[in-house]
Amino acid sequence: MDSATIHAAVEEDLRDRETWENKQADLYKARYRGLRRTNPPWPGASDINWPLVDTIIGKLAPHYVGQLYATELLASFVAEPGTDGTPALATSAAQWFDYKLKHQSNFEREILFVVNWQLMLGRPVLKVVWDTDAKRIRFVAIEPARIIVPPSTADLWEADRITHVMTFSPDAYRRMPNFRTDDEFVASITGRGTDSEERPDRAVTEARVQREGITYGSADEIVVWETWVQTADGWEVHTYSPVRPSDPVRNMYRHPYSHGRPPFADFPNEMTEPRWEAPRGIAEIVLPYQAQLTKLLNEKNDALTLYNRPLFQSSVDADTTTFPLWTSGRPSVQVTAKFG
Fold first, then answer.
1. Please, what sign has the CA dihedral across residues 169, 170, 171, 174?
2. By C-alpha distance, which of 12, 53, 11, 13 is closest to 32?
3. 244-254, strands of its sheet edge to edge
4. How many CB atoms lie within 10 A of CB 186?
5. pTM of the entire structure?
6. CA–CA separation, 199 vs 190, rounded Å?
7. Do 230 and 160 form a contact (C-beta atoms < 8 A)?
8. Which residues of 39-53 are buried (b: 16+ CB within 10 A; e: fewer)?
9. Where are the beta strands (DSSP E) in the chain?
10. Is 105 exposed, middle or buried (0-12, 13-18, 19+ CB in 10 A)?
11. pLDDT, tens digit, 9 for 90 and up, residues 31-70
């Protein structure tokens, strides 16, 4: 199966999730930009956001992260029956494994992103690979929008294909081992790409699916799709650019790990339906309440503005009347008042 055929299938997956993808974008805006007033009552009226989503995530995230650094180890080991393994050796292995992951990898940094996206959006993914240069395990936190799977997917290990959307600067791309790095090819896949490749279906393809950051990058970015395809002979990995899918970024290779499963682990925030897009994050659950609180706060500020400013002013001079102020039965001072 060539990369162009796989690319067409992934594009179908991308189009099928359009509603979910638009919802994810709205949730991002609700948290980081806030719910802004579309029609303020006057210029300069109150337009602030009640950060309910951000507040709840800020309270929950430390609890999740704290579990990783509690007294318990990340994993426990049991000696295989019939071997010379002892409970003490199993305990030492668990402590060694815990130390390696927490203190000699980028696990601590990446898990913070996973926790944030899990609470906010519902289902992030953690990619676990072996860094051949550093000779250590490496973790890559992937936000939900950058993992593309068929709509029928319930479990990553059973998916027909898994596409990881990766973004590079041109210089970072050239540093990747086994990637095609000749100048003409790099220029043709940077940003929206170039028209150097004759593809009669290009206009049709671009009209069907276009997502900035997913199918193409900005002027100085390169988007690469790494698609894991499950076949009868195991997993195949196809790496290519969505702006030039017929020319692979690197040659296809087979699953490099002996366990036979794709190196992805997902973290659903809830289990409600056996669908990949079913889990909801905090943002989707509490967004109606944030909208209500934001509306209440803005209208309260509007009321304060009106109450503390003069609403009406007279355009003519007011009449002046002087009357005595009586104190203990006799007038003491004269008070002048204007009536209008």
1. positive
2. 53
3. 147-148, 161-168, 222-231, 234-241, 244-254
4. 18
5. 0.81
6. 17
7. yes
8. eeeeeeebeebbbbb
9. 125-131, 136-142, 147-148, 161-168, 222-231, 234-241, 244-254, 264-266, 319-327, 330-339
10. middle
11. 999 998 988 998 889 999 999 999 999 999 999 888 877 7
Burial letters 89-102, b for 16+ CB under 10 A, else e: eeeebbeeebeebe
Q: How many CB atoms lie within 10 A of CB 263?
A: 20
Using DSSP, state whether 200 is helix, strand or coil: coil
Amino acid of residue 219: A
What pLDDT score was predicted for residue 217? 85
What is the amino acid identity at position 34? Answer: G
pLDDT tens sequence across 95-146 = 999 888 888 899 989 999 999 999 999 999 999 998 888 888 999 999 999 9
Backbone phi and psi for residue 203, each to the nearest 5 degrees, phi listed first? -60, -40
Question: Is the separation of the CB atoms in 250 and 108 below 8 Å?
Answer: no
Polymer length in residues for the chain: 340
Do 214 and 270 contact (CB within 8 A), yes or no?
Answer: no
Do 166 and 147 contact (CB within 8 A), yes or no? no
Task: Output the six-digit token pair for 143.
Answer: 């936000």
